[in-house]
Amino acid sequence: MIEEVGTNYSSxxxxxxSGQILGKDAFLKLFLAQLExxxxxxxxxxxEFITQMAQFASLEELSNLNTNFxxxxxxxxxxQAVQLIDRKVEASDPKTGEIIQGRVxxxxxKEGAPYALIGDKSVPLTSIxxxx
Length: 132
Description:
It is a single chain. The protein is α+β, with helices and mostly antiparallel strands. The chain has two domains: 2-37 and 45-74, no CATH class; 78-131, Roll (SH3 type barrels), CATH 2.30.30. It has three helices and five strands. Strands 4-3-2-1-5 form a five-stranded antiparallel sheet. Helix 1 (2-17) runs antiparallel to helix 2. It is rod-shaped and about 75 Å long. Residues 1-18 have low confidence and may be disordered. Belongs to the FlgD family. It holds the Pfam family FlgD.
């Protein structure tokens, strides 16, 4: 009877997360569900427990590494954007398709990306086609 409950609960968890990547929160929920629903006559083996804890620690470190890479990428975008200040550029306005030429007065970060202010127009760096 206990095995059936554990099996049904596990299949419910996998249905809820099918097609999605299991993150650290989902992994922890699965791990806790496994501990709560284990057969008391056949508890989790110590080596299995240690293996799962090591996997969780690895998942946490990979998540931290991914966060650091995102930060490094953002800093790289900012460094590229700052180098354009006071440089003459040509860009295509993504909304109107209008070609804009002029000096970059300042750069700003909005909508998760760097933008260059050319006169009164703000364009994403990806829209800049020429730099003089």
